[in-house]
Amino acid sequence: MKTFLLILIFGLISQTSRAQVTAAAALIALNEIDAKVTGQLQTIDNLATNAIGNTGNMVLSVSARLRKDINETIGNTDQVLRENQLLLYNQLLNMSSDFSKVVEGRMREADMITTKLTETIDNFIVVKKEPRIYRYDTQTFIKQYTGSYLFKIKGKNFDQSDQVFITINNKQIKPVQSAYDEVVFRIDSSDIALTSPQDHYADARINFLWKKGLFRKQMHTKIPFLIPVIPLNIGKVTVFYDQALPERKYAEPISYSCSCRTGGPGWSGGRRRSTTAFNIIPTGGRLFDPNSIEVVSWTQRHGGGYNFDHKTEQQIRGYINCSSESRPFGAGGSSSLTFRYKEYETIYPVHKKQTDVKAITSINPIIFDLPESVDNKRPSISYAVVKTYDQKEFILTPSNPNKFFELRMNPVTDDVIINWKN
Questions:
Q1: Of the candidates 17, 416, 404, 23, which has an alpha carbon nearest to the alpha carbon of residue 230?
Q2: Rounded distance, CA 379 to CA 397, Å?
């Protein structure tokens, strides 16, 4: 509902620069801008470039200044904004929209937004001695890694203040360097605490204590800003790869039969013997499965036997024998063997595989050890999926570059290396 109201207000204002906007509607829209910018400052995009954090804080600074002026003049009422308030309000809406485009990837426009906001706030503030901020210059703060946070603001009239300090986590921090147009703070990492466990920023305020007018009225200007807090582990990565693995493709079972016969012993009565050998070679480039050899039937008359003396993938070799009766004019002998076996060929279907999930940091690369090659067939990476702390998902491939992450392959070991680019 609030987002709809903000869009509606923006649409009406776009129709005419003199459109009337009530103070109550403007304050709601300012809250929407603050919430949106706060969310954008917590994304991984801010880790890629400090320009997002610097420009976003400038938007929040101007929003706070306009909110203060509205509350001190016409309040949260149905009265329309004054001309100078409306001018700043319209500019802030435009700059907020442009800031969203910066977050989406148009980084070059960040400085342009800051410049326009600087000009607008300079025209809005009429008290010459009031301190005003034109630009933020910050570093990236990585939780559990960054030792201290260097924070610089640029503007003018800073030397008109009796005191300049930051309040954060119920602590006052004085600048390490102060001049007319620049103030530098150094905040120890122990003083930077998340606003809540679900958030990735710390609330802070810049305070200017200065005197206004002939009677030197004490003024206290408070300007909020956010310190984006980047977790050390910025996401989790899984690598997906293909690997051709050997499988046996069996043909239908094949039967083989052989027999042995011998004549009778004649008048002498001596036993007669005979042997039949068999030697089988696989067909069609296939191989035998020695474990598949199975005797289906064996018969013999008056004695005999069989033996497989060579069972390998390349050859099945053996023999059967038979014998006659051993009495004069006895009967001849016979035997018969039937067995079956299987032939197979090795095929290499491609299997879809994935690695275990690993955490990735903004500091050190991570290495995934892919399996060794099998029969000289190496694994082939398909893609990697990075799920970052701000619930974004990035697909990485060796051929398509990503603005945040880099994916490389070790050509010798097939290891996959993924690291944060910046």
A1: 404
A2: 15
Taking Cα atoms as reference points, which of 83, 97, 98 lies closest to residue 21? Answer: 83
CA distance 58 to 226: 10
First to last CA, the chain: 38
Q: Are 243 and 374 in contact (CB under 8 A)?
A: yes
Residue-level pLDDT at 114: 60
pLDDT in tens, 165-213: 999 888 999 999 988 889 999 988 888 877 666 677 788 889 999 888 7
Q: CA dihedral defined by 387, 391, 393, 394, rounded to 10 degrees?
A: -80
Name residues whose C-beta falls within 8 Å of residue 343's C-beta, 6 or more positions apart in sequence.
250, 251, 254, 282, 283, 284, 286, 287, 288, 289
Q: Are 260 and 334 spatial neighbours (Cβ–Cβ below 8 Å)?
A: yes
Q: In this structure, what token pair is assigned to residue 82?
A: 């004054």
Averaged over successive runs of 10 residues, the pLDDT of the chain (422 residues) comes to: 45 50 89 83 65 76 86 89 86 79 56 60 64 81 84 86 89 90 89 74 86 81 83 90 94 95 85 94 93 95 93 96 90 95 95 94 89 90 91 88 85 87 71
Please classify residue 204 by burial: count the beta carbons closer than 10 Å to its beta carbon, then call 0-12 exposed, 13-18 middle and 19+ buried: buried
**Could you tell me if 219 and 195 are in contact, meaning their C-beta atoms sit under 8 angstroms apart?**
no
Q: What is the largest CA-CA distance in the chain?
A: 152
C-alpha distances in Å from residue 286, one per residue of 291, 292, 315: 15, 14, 11
Give the amino acid at 11: G
Segment 252-302, tens digit of pLDDT: 999 999 999 999 888 887 889 999 999 999 998 899 999 999 999 999 999
Count H helices and E strands in the chain, helices first. 6, 26
Backbone angles phi, psi at 72, to 5 degrees: -85, -15
Give me the helices (H) in 192-331, please: none
List the one residue out of 144, 141, 215, 218 whose CA is nearest residue 185. Answer: 141
> Are 183 and 146 spatial neighbours (Cβ–Cβ below 8 Å)?
no
pTM: 0.64
Q: What is the pLDDT of residue 126?
A: 53
The rounded distance, in Å, linking the Cα atoms of 23 and 327 is 129
